[in-house]
Amino acid sequence: MNRGINLEKLKDINWNHLYCFYEVAKVQSLKKGAEIIGTSSPTLSEQLKRLENKFNMKLFNRSSKGLSLTPEGLQLFERTKGIFEEGSKLLEHFSEDVVGGYPVSIGIEETISYDLATEFASQYWDLYTKYGTVNTIRQADHEVLVDNILRGNIDWGISLRKPKRKSLNVAEIGSFEIVFCCSTELYDKFKDEKDLLVNIPFAESNWDKNLNRVIYQHLRKNGVVPKEKVYSDHIDFVHKLCLRGRCVMFLPKNPLEEYLGLKTFNLGEPLKMSLYAIWKKSDEGLISIRKLQELFQSKLSNVPDRYEDVDLQIEVSDVSDDLLN
Fold this sequence. Notes:
This protein is of the alpha/beta class. The chain folds into 3 domains: 84 residues, Winged helix-like DNA-binding domain superfamily/Winged helix DNA-binding domain (Arc Repressor Mutant, subunit A, Orthogonal Bundle), CATH 1.10.10; 112 residues, Periplasmic binding protein-like II (D-Maltodextrin-Binding Protein, domain 2, 3-Layer(aba) Sandwich), CATH 3.40.190.10; 97 residues, D-Maltodextrin-Binding Protein, domain 2 (3-Layer(aba) Sandwich). The protein is built from 12 helices and 11 strands. The strands form 3 sheets. Strands 3, 4, 5, 6, 9, 10 and 11 form a 7-stranded mixed beta sheet that branches. A two-stranded antiparallel sheet has the order 1-2. Strands 7-8 form a two-stranded parallel ribbon. Helix 1 packs across helix 4. It is elongated and about 85 Å long.
């Protein structure tokens, strides 16, 4: 951006003009922007021109096809997004009205069970989609996830553990069963599953240390201590080794999936793990958290018809009929 202009203080900016720019840049349309703001197109056009004069730069390309952002306009838009999205959250904090208009970031702890976590997050999208988009961000472990929630880097998170912080709230999303597995041929060669687990290299993940700890506690409880371990960050690599009879692995049992070439089994009592949603208590007035709490009221497995409704996204995105078949 041109830094030769004289804008030394925040008071030098007309924030109403900047907000008008933000709304128009979002929809790339002067007419739609005017409808959102509640003003006329000529008035809005004049405000945008004043902002361009203030910044001494062209923010929009204007043609018979409408508006498009210039490179400078795109840079300004990326900056203003954070300002006005945070402003929407501020309004919701101090008002009972639903404001929306900001994206949500969900932190998902690195875990072997992404199926349950991502299914929950995808159903949350459909509840929240009227108010903004939903992003997911990988979190290295539970402590990193909690820290990012507290700092406001993510809006809420999914973890294998309940948080200890009193400023956080938690609810169970669901549970999944961990099973052991190896190639069918290798399984058939052993008389006892315990001997299989002791003598064949046992694969674990480098990144899911909490789950590894739970697994080894379960093994010791059942009198099993593997002689040799395999470490990998790549589940596909371990899966290939397992199919070839080179190792034993563990995975979340998915009743809808067939594990061709693999034999799955339990050791003693089934090993079940829970997944939890975590959020700040102080954010419970936000529509982002209210929709999260609404999702808890319905059963995750009971998928409503709306999840198969393609028109939903077209409607909330305000796509013009001229663009559709």
